[in-house]
Design goal:
5 helices; Glycosyltransferase; alpha+beta; about 170 residues; two-stranded antiparallel sheet; three-stranded antiparallel sheet
Length: about 170
């Protein structure tokens, strides 16, 4: 418990960028990482916390054609690989989930329905979506995309104030 509390303090102190008003990819970095959208889902901080709200707001900066990339494709915080990737389906769903948790159910529903619209003819999702070419990319089918889809569907169908799977 003491170690958990220390990690929590460190992340809150060093993983937070006050200028960006967001949690970031790494200590001392200002690069965004969509995995920070999971902060309320895993119970690290409650959705009502202003740092969570700021992080959700900042993640719109990772938008790509109505979907969300994991991180900026170029420069600091990118993956360092040549070429470009599509938006990660799971990240778009994490964004919808975080929007719902922070009091934006209409926006969350729009993002969720946008993801539903890109399923293939048998309802499956790949790892990524390229809004420019309108096609799925990466591993297909992708379990992580489907798990996020189910989690977000539960979150959007829950009564107000109830967060399925939340520990706080």
């Amino acid at each position: 418990r003491a170690m958990r509390a220390e990690v929590h303090r460190q992340v809150c102190r060093h993983g937070w960028d006050g200028d960006r008003r967001s949690f970031v990819q790494a200590y001392g970095s200002s690069a965004l990482d969509a995995s920070a959208l999971l902060i309320p889902r895993v119970g690290f901080l409650p959705a009502r916390d202003e740092r969570v709200r700021g992080t959700v707001h900042a993640m719109s900066g990772l938008g790509q054609g109505g979907f969300v990339r994991r991180f900026a494709p170029y420069g600091p915080g990118g993956d360092g690989m040549p070429g470009r990737e599509g938006a990660f389906v799971a990240c778009s769903l994490w964004y919808a989930d975080a929007l719902a948790a922070t009091g934006h159910p209409g926006q969350a529903q729009e993002v969720f329905e946008r993801v539903l619209a890109i399923r293939n003819d048998v309802g499956l999702l790949a790892e990524q979506w390229d809004p420019e070419s309108g096609r799925q990319l990466g591993n297909a089918p992708q379990a992580c995309s489907h798990i996020a889809l189910v989690e977000t569907a539960f979150a959007l169908s829950a009564p107000p104030g109830v967060r399925p799977g939340s520990r706080r």
